[in-house]
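Entry 12.
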Amino acid sequence: MDFKSSDTITGPRAEDHLPHTTQAAVKIVIVGGFGVGKTTMVGSVSEIRPLTTEETMTQAGIGVDDNYGSETKTATTVAMDFGRISITEQLVLYLFGTPGQERFWFLWNGLFEGALGAVVLVDTRRLEVSFDVIGRLEERGVPFVIAINDFPDAPRYPVEDLRTALDLSEDIPIIKCDARRRASSRDVLMTLMRFLHSLAMTRA
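Predicted 3D structure (tokens):
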């Protein structure tokens, strides 16, 4: 390929470079069913421009993808979302958002590799889509917290009722959030990090 003199090759932006104070990086996955807000959460909290693999939804998905509760959604993640957030000057989290549609779940195995923990985003309008997601994490032994994404028209239930409905043990944290808001998404990640720390202390 011939390049013209006007062609430019650009690398990472200055703000995308890893802070020089970083001493540890941790991989976290954001999982959940279709349309629960995974891409939104990664985008809202990432300190770098997030990488997304969204594609426009077409009629080919009719009858294949279950978009109940998200009928107005026009794009879907087909591989992953990626972002990064510095928790402290020394600790950085790499965030990987998984595709929500079941036909793309074969990609989850690779995304779970090396993950220290996970956030399960839940939409209370469609609790049932979370059952298989939670089951997959339990099968792989990936610790997780539950984040209830606060959609305006979603029903609200007491935390203990949600714990019972999702068949969760008492030690798994459940936190309500608004995935559109950076502070709220960061609180979810901090809850996960505290949970992981408590597990490490228990096993020590």
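Annotation: The two ends are 56 Å apart (CA to CA). The helical segments are 38-45, 108-112, 129-140, 159-165, 182-203.
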